[in-house]
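Researcher: Next entry in the queue.
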Amino acid sequence: MAVPLYEHPVWESLPDQVMRPGGLILTERAFSFAELASGSRVLDLGCGLGATLRHLSADYGLAAFGVDVSSPLLGRADRDDKVAFVQARSEQLPLASESIGAVISECTLSLFEMESALREVVRVLKPGGWFIVSDLYVRNVDGIAALRQLPAGTSIGAAMAQEEIEAKIAACGLDIVTWQDCSEHLKAFPFCRLSTAAEVNPFDLVIAAGKAKLGYYVMVARKS
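Model: Structure for this entry, 224 residues:
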């Protein structure tokens, strides 16, 4: 890809600048499970333009902090004194241990070096802190091979089965509180934009997603 996937201008006209299925609706659903006092520190991994951070700051009174590897995205993010951004990798967070009340990863976890990112999540979370994830997953493991043939760098090509995701979460010391299938939100997602940004044939994308029975989930876990 000449332009990194999430920096592609094809996303610029999306409502609320949210580049994921379900948007802030699923953010609200996930946070209904987390017990966070006003002023709690929340970290968004792969925050992009910061739509979720602004929402959590304005509507929940949370101290919102975001990291992203993309300098162009962070440069275009709307900033105020209640939301902070820094360019960093989720596998190497510039934060003190046990300093964060909740970490969120919305349609980004499968793009990271997952084991390294999860170790960092556990490190920065306070005891009892929350890890909130929404992402794509595979409901037919026989179709994973077709996904892996897609160009690298998309959540679709990196999607895993539920059992594998849950095993990685448990292995890092987090207790899963809830897992919800939210695949109905894929119907409204503009896959035509994704295929353009990823420079992949849209028919190849649809066929691979169909073989894998691609789904979308919300998961909330807690550091014990």
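Model: The longest strand covers residues 125-138.
Researcher: Noted, moving on.
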